[in-house]
Design goal:
Helices cover 41% and strands 18% of the residues. By secondary structure, it is α+β, with helices and mostly antiparallel strands.
Length: 291
């Protein structure tokens, strides 16, 4: 299922978008803006990259640029007499809307890290979500200037959150920056270029020139999981992309994703995604038929 490029219209006298959504939520799509999405009314299936989950009212997610996504409400929110009954608030901004260096200044290092992680989609813990929801519920009623300073308040809350949950697999992250030469970026480079092959930690250690102990510790701190867990997540995420294209069978997808046999692929896929590859295909197919 190919993601459509759908963008909201930014008014000429504004540098970012605040939008009150009362129409049917957009189908599987992507765009170059960061997006903070609050569901005021609605319940159904949320799809972010290769993550499929249920959502309810007050669902709040931050997405990075070009992360494919869709909030699909249950049939009860579609009425022939009342129309669509879902509602949401969307804030969108381009990475450079406050200047090319704003998010990279030292004072914004925690916010910058969170925005980088938004490439996998972010779900926030209850305490942070309550603070953000309170601001988003009033921002649509404010003047242009007040909206800007409210958005800065939202940035402050985001920068203070460090226990958020990443939604989709790392394969959906933006490509690593080619000029970044830190060991962990070099490790990511190696994994993304070799995950379809017989990749192991020995190859990464040789590429990064790190000891096993130092690498494992640094990798766990940087990516919140072990090397093996990350590699499996990359492979399963890539497989999810292939499973939605209908061009290959499951066995071919398993081998193309770096798995040596179909049984291990099925086992690891269900462990990470909670469903089998066949069930994943059915979930995406049922969503596609509704459009």
């Amino acid at each position: 299922m190919k993601a459509q490029n759908i963008r909201l219209i930014k008014e000429p006298d504004k540098s970012f978008i605040v939008y009150y959504e009362k129409n049917v939520f957009s189908r599987w799509h992507q765009h170059p803006e960061y997006e903070l999405i609050l569901i005021l009314k609605g319940k159904g299936k949320r799809m972010v990259g290769d993550n499929i989950d249920r959502f309810e009212e007050n669902d709040l997610v931050l997405l990075g640029p070009y992360v494919p996504h869709e909030w699909l409400c249950d049939e009860s929110y579609f009425s022939s007499t009342e129309g669509f009954k879902g509602e949401g608030i969307v804030i969108q901004f381009l990475p450079d809307f406050l200047g090319t260096q704003f998010f990279e200044i030292p004072e914004n290092k925690f916010l910058n890290k969170l925005l980088q992680d938004a490439s996998s989609g972010i779900k926030f813990p209850l305490k942070t979500r309550q603070k953000l929801i309170a601001l988003m519920q009033v921002i649509t009623q404010l003047s242009i200037t007040e909206q800007l300073y409210t958005l800065l308040s939202i940035f402050k809350i985001l920068s203070q959150c460090n226990d958020y949950t990443l939604l989709c697999s790392p394969i959906f992250m933006k490509p690593f920056h080619p000029n970044t030469r830190t060991p962990m970026h070099k490790a990511l480079q190696y994994i993304l270029q070799n995950f379809q092959n017989d990749t192991n930690i020995k190859g990464v250690l040789a590429f990064t020139k790190m000891s096993n102990t130092a690498f494992c510790k640094a990798f766990k701190i940087s990516y919140r999981m072990t090397f093996k867990e990350y590699l499996l997540s990359i492979r399963v995420g890539y497989a999810c992309n292939l499973l939605t294209d209908d061009n290959l069978n499951i066995s071919e997808i398993a081998y193309n994703s770096g798995f040596e046999n179909i049984s291990n692929f099925n086992r690891q896929f269900k462990k990470i995604k909670g469903v089998t590859p066949s069930q994943f295909i059915k979930q995406h197919s049922s969503s596609k038929k509704l459009h």
